[in-house]
Each structure stands twice: as C-alpha cells, then as structure tokens.
Amino acid sequence: MSAVLVVNSGSSSFKYQLIDAESEVTLASGLVERIGEPTGGATHTDAAGERTSLELEIVDHTAGFAVMLEAFAASGVDVVADLVAVGHRVVQGGARFFEPTIITDLVRINIDELSGLAPLHNPANLAGIIAAQKAFPDVSHVAVFDTAFHQTMPPASYTYAIDAALAEKYRVRRYGFHGTSHRFVAHAAAEFVGRPVEDLRQIVLHLGNGASMCAVDGGRSIDTSMGMTPLEGLVMGTRSGDIDPAVLLYLQRRAGLSADEVDTLLNKRSGLLGLSGRGDMRDVQTAADAGDEAAKLALDVYVHRARSYIGAYLVELRGVDVISFTAGVGENSPLLRSRILAGLESFGIEIDPVLNTSPDRGARVISTENSRVTVLVVPTNEELEIARQTLAVVGG
Ligand code: ADP
C-alpha cells in the first residue's frame, strides 16, 4: 500500500489526513490542538471511523507529530512503511510559487521570506513542515500553495492601481487564496458534466467561513475575489470583504483606532458578525427567518456582494458554461444559492427549486433542463487535491 500524508498546520494546531495513493480513500485523519498550552488535545480517527482522543501537554509541533505517530501505532498502522510523500498546505506562495513544489532548504527559506505577506499563516505552515520533516525524514515533502492556482491571472486582474514602484518594492498585488479548492472544484465540475476543463468557462463560489469566487477560463484562474490578503472580496463570517480604503483612514483619524485595531475590526469583527452579531451563517439564517432585521440585512449585503462578482465574471469570461457552489454555505444553503442566482434567466441561468433543495450530498446539478448554464453543487476536498498534487510532483 502507498499513502500520502496531508498536513494543514496552524500556529497552535495541525490537521492531518492519510490518503491512499491509488483508491484516494482516507485511511486516517486527526487533529492536534492547543499546542503550547498546558493542556493540549489530540483526536485520531482510523479507517473504520473509530475515534480516539487524549489530553496531554504538547509543547511544540515536533511533540505534536510524536503524538500523531503514537496514535497511528496504537491503531495498528505502520504509517512510515506506507508513506510515499507528505503534502503541506501553505497559504502564501507569492509570485514565486505557481505549482506544487518539493520542499528543499531554499524553499523553506522562501516560504519564511513570504511571511511578511501572510504573518498569521506562513510561519505556522513552516512550523508544521519542519516538524513533519523531522518525523518523516526519508520521504519527499511537498508544499501546495493556496495562491498557486491564481498565478495564471493576467496583470490586469492582479494589479492594484497604486504607485507601481512602491507596489513592486513591497510586493503589493492581488494573489488570491482558496486556490486548491477552486482548482479541485473546477476539475470535478468538468468531470461531472463530462467535458474537458479546457473547453469550459466556469465560475466557482467557495462560500465557507472565509469566502471567495473565481473565474476559471479553460481550467485557468483569470480572476478571483480575494486579493493581497484573504480580506478582499465577498462578505465573510467575520471579514468585511471589499470596502472603500478611505474608511480605514477615516476610522484611524476620526475614531482614533490604531492600525492593529482596524486590522482586527475588518478581519475579526466585521462581515456577518459585524452586521448581525452572528458569524455563523446557520445562525444568521435562523435569526433572519425569525424576523431579525440586522440578520436580514446581513444576508442582503452578502447576496448583493456575491451577485456583483457573478456579473463581473460573466463579463470577464464572455459568458459562462458552469457555475459551482462549494464549502459550508455553498454546499448546504439552498436559500443562498437561489438568492445569489435569482432572476438571471435572461443570462441563461435557471435554478430548479426541487433539485436545489435535494438532500443529496454528492456533486449534483441544481439548474433546470432548460438552463443554458449548468449550475452545480460540488463538495470541495482540499486534502484530496493536496494529495493528488503531491503525488504528481513526486511521480507517484
Ligand atoms: P471554513 O472556511 O472554516 O472551512 P466551512 O466551509 O466549513 O468553513 O463553512 C462554514 C460555514 O458554513 C458557516 O458559516 C456555517 O454556518 C455554514 N453552514 C454549514 N451548514 C450550513 C447550512 N446547512 N446552512 C447554511 N450555512 C451552513
């Protein structure tokens, strides 16, 4: 048997998944959390769905990988023997990384250098890489970047209209995120409709806690709603998405907020949470159903923003063949799917209310037979995409 371990490392936790290289079945998954706190936690689920949890102090990521190895051993899996490679999610690859990349010393230095652009993410991803390389020194480790899929965006999409020299010096441009998910969904959608991805113009809506949209032309990202950071674009659980940049300056000058306070405001206290006091879409929908005006407005703003991007991408792509919804909200909220695409029959987009509310979980069509544009729900699987890209690089 050969398997790929997929690692998604945060600053105080990491998730992992062991995926069979051939069948693509998940052989085990787990979460190591509260690293560096007095009581850490580890949960491991084996192939049969059997879950074990324990609490213990986990001083750093290296100790976390030791805990993970013990969990594999306890469930009778010789993970080292089966492993062909480890795939790591890395958030920011800058303009340097446009494809999955085998992690060498130089690549590690590059990922570290890009920390200025992603201070919350790249150092945490790197901590996971270093610990995993110690735990599995004999296999290749591959970095799969959230930004890589969007490196095909043309300059007109990724350039901010500011002083060009300043932008270049500080690498200020749009990078886009969720690339692994957008790529997975665009390919899965093409397979689902039975056409080559090269022939399709697609719009992908990744609507989770974080949310972004992507215009995919022939399998290549030509535009996406997130920018230099994941703050730009759609209304999210706690992020504002697009906002007049002058608002930031106004709040600093008039409300006396510091730069850090504005950062926290826009990233952690805005979006659905800022508008309605609830950051979770289920809670917002429930409150709106009960007549809560703030929750209704939050939904209205959320839908309005997503529709603006639908319009933009319809024009950029000169028409669209497939629109796919994915992630927590996209996969589970018929209400938001129907509101985002309401009244677009003249653009060939027509949702079938019965299909849209079907309880099915897999990839499925939700447009009518007459709809010129095929509208799909496609469950995303970023871990599987990372495993596939990792295998492609190591030649598995
Ligand atoms: P993350 O970005 O953290 O991976 P997810 O993709 O899991 O997020 O999406 C989480 C979001 O999906 C939350 O806002 C949650 O409320 C929303 N969600 C999950 N199930 C439903 C549902 N049935 N209806 C509406 N929203 C849902």
TrEMBL record:
Cofactor: Mg(2+); Mn(2+)
GO biological process: acetate metabolic process; acetyl-CoA biosynthetic process
Gene3D superfamilies recorded: 3.30.420.40
GO cellular component: cytoplasm
InterPro entries with a match to the protein in the record: Ac/propionate_kinase (IPR004372), Aliphatic_acid_kin_short-chain (IPR000890), Aliphatic_acid_kinase_CS (IPR023865), ATPase_NBD (IPR043129)
Assembly with partners or alone: Homodimer.
The protein, known as: Acetate kinase
